[in-house]
Design a protein that fits this description.
About 40% of the residues lie in helices and about 20% in strands. It has about 550 residues and is α/β, with parallel strands linked by helices. Strands 1, 2, 3, 4, 5, 6, 7, 8 and 9 form a nine-stranded mixed sheet that branches. It has an eight-stranded mixed sheet with strand order 12-11-10-13-14-17-16-15. Strand 15 (about 505-510) and strand 16 form a beta hairpin. Helix 3 (about 35-45) packs antiparallel against helix 4, helix 4 packs antiparallel against helix 5 (about 70-80) and helix 6 (about 85-100) runs antiparallel to helix 7 (about 100-120). The termini are far apart.
């Protein structure tokens, strides 16, 4: 009864009496839920135009009951009054999720549409930069300060997603001018956190970053030059000081100041350093915004973040777009600050890997990797202006694609890749990185390729099966142009590892001579085998 009278006084504008009764209600708090007290005190604060105070009261109520409809609706309304339309719609949508009152749903939906209309009146940015942060405020500040300092002459909006932090991140985000803070009620995981930011992005491009990066001169300018060079490019990312997937860029520096000086020298756009990839790790996940909507953002099954990058890479590539690693751009990465705790406490890496394997019937760690030890031994004819590559049984096609990248960096820009696919499960991915492809059996390679010739052939095959196909290496060699090279990996038990040293220059297999590149000993149940990486110059 007292609560109803307080609401009536608020609506009539008699705040003095509303406050008097509020004091009486607090003295008899057993009469109502604690969360309702915060809601009514917030309503008084709104009537007094004390919007920040109202926000704080409602957030306290949210900690008590995260699905209390009045708290969610009123937070949406407070943020609307503060012109934080992204945060407003976030809480309005949460309110719709927890109510079945159709009249209220209709009213909230009208508020959401009004917010979207108001948003539409402002000029759209070229890029929406989304920073995701869960605690680690010191890192977050370095990240955001670097974005503000080194993102110049580019129209962008900065969407700051606070993933349920408890360390002052909220207050820091709210203190920054001209940003769009989005405060999530709790930590919803890396992928869900980024998805919340992606859904409100208005730029032509969306660039997602974690709070453990420092950004550098021309970082975004270089990425834009790349992605706008070809409408078929869907996703680009720079290199970093600490990252896997052969995206690490090493520099000589001893502190952050020297690191930025290195980046200033290094970060100059160079298309020869753009590498098309089968999978790409996101120092920055910079993707066309409409494409993100088309593929429905990150897959929330990858809750912890690991392998979400592999997954979104596969989906973007399978949608018909290229992934480009911009090796001409360096950023600084502290290293797994965002996901380290989950890796230790929740075995997140293996859990996520299993989800990927179950989804694709592929293992990204084995089916989409590059063998740089093999590729680096291939010699490049610098006098050439074009080249042809044949990949045989190269799984998702990473090795032929990386050879093309290596040729590009040497100035050979016109390269054609043909892939001969032996296993149907790789076909969908092989198509995305091939100029031409054939699905067939190993017995029919000579027939299927007919009179075709290639400058480079990469052959990946289980050498235990080679005895069943003794002519295959000779057949592939016959497909080489003059001076062409055949790169292959063989596990061949006929050799004694004690008789093969790193000084060997050539080796005989099935009566043919191959020039030695590298050798490593492995063990199995039948004894020692040698994994031999060979190159044949014809």
């Amino acid at each position: 009864m007292i609560a109803q009278r307080i609401q009536e006084y608020i609506h009539s504008g008699d705040l003095y009496k509303a406050k008097e009764l509020m004091s009486e209600l607090e003295d008899n708090s057993y009469l109502v839920k604690e969360v309702e007290i915060y809601t009514m005190k917030a309503a008084i604060a709104v009537a007094e135009n004390k919007l920040h105070e109202a926000e704080e009261l409602l957030l306290k109520g949210l900690l008590i009951d995260s699905e209390y409809i009045d708290v969610l609706f009123n937070l949406g309304y407070v943020y609307k009054l503060r012109n934080n339309l992204i945060q407003s719609n976030y809480f309005f949508e949460k309110a719709i999720d927890v109510t079945r009152d159709n009249a209220l749903i209709n009213a909230i939906e009208q508020f959401i549409e009004d917010n979207r209309y108001l948003n539409s009146l402002t000029e759209k940015p070229l890029v929406s930069i989304i920073v995701l942060a869960y605690n680690k405020l010191d890192y977050t500040k370095l990240c955001i300060e670097s974005i503000l300092k080194y993102t110049l002459d580019i129209s962008y909006e900065l969407i700051l997603v606070n993933n349920g932090s408890t360390d002052g991140t909220r207050e820091y985000f709210d203190s920054l001018p001209s940003v769009k803070p989005l405060h999530l009620m709790k930590n919803v995981g890396v992928t869900n956190g980024f998805n919340e930011g992606m859904r409100v992005a208005e730029g032509k491009y969306t660039a997602c970053v974690c709070n453990d990066f420092i950004f550098t001169p021309r970082w975004l300018e270089n990425l834009l030059i790349c992605i706008e060079s070809d409408e078929r490019i869907g996703y680009v990312s720079p290199g970093a000081s600490m990252i896997s997937n052969l995206q690490q860029i090493n520099g000589e520096y001893n502190n952050l100041e020297e690191m930025l000086q290195f980046a200033e020298r290094y970060n100059h756009s160079d298309p020869r350093k753009w590498e098309e990839r089968v999978r790409l790790l996101p120092c920055v996940l910079m993707v066309r915004t409409e494409l993100l909507k088309q593929i429905d953002y990150y897959d929330p099954r990858f809750y912890y973040g690991e392998f979400a990058d592999d997954d979104i890479s596969f989906r973007i590539r399978r949608a018909g777009y290229k992934l480009i690693y911009c090796k001409d751009t360096f950023t600084y990465h502290f290293g797994s600050v965002t996901v380290r705790d989950d890796q230790v406490n929740n075995n997140s890496l293996n859990v996520s890997r299993d989800i990927f394997i179950d989804k694709y019937n592929l293992d990204s760690w084995t089916d989409a990797v590059m063998n740089i030890g093999l590729l680096k031994e291939i010699s490049v004819k610098l006098s050439c202006t074009n080249a042809s590559i044949l990949g045989v049984n190269t799984r998702c096609g990473s090795n032929p694609l990386q050879l093309k990248n290596m040729l590009r960096e040497k100035g050979i820009l016109d390269t054609c890749i043909t892939n001969y696919c032996l296993d149907h499960k790789y076909l969908q991915d092989i198509i995305t990185v091939s100029d031409d492809y054939i699905q067939g059996d190993i017995e029919n390679i000579d027939i299927e390729l007919k009179n075709q010739k290639f400058d480079y052939i990469i052959f990946e095959y289980d050498s235990n099966n080679l005895n069943n196909h003794p002519l295959i290496i000779a057949q592939l060699s016959s497909k080489l142009n003059h001076g062409g090279q055949l790169a292959l990996i063989l596990k061949h038990p006929q050799f004694d590892k004690n008789n093969i040293s790193k000084d060997i220059e050539r080796i005989q297999i099935s009566g043919m001579t191959y020039y030695y590149c590298n050798v490593a000993a492995t063990n199995n149940s039948s004894g020692v085998e040698l994994e031999i990486i060979l190159r044949r110059d014809v």
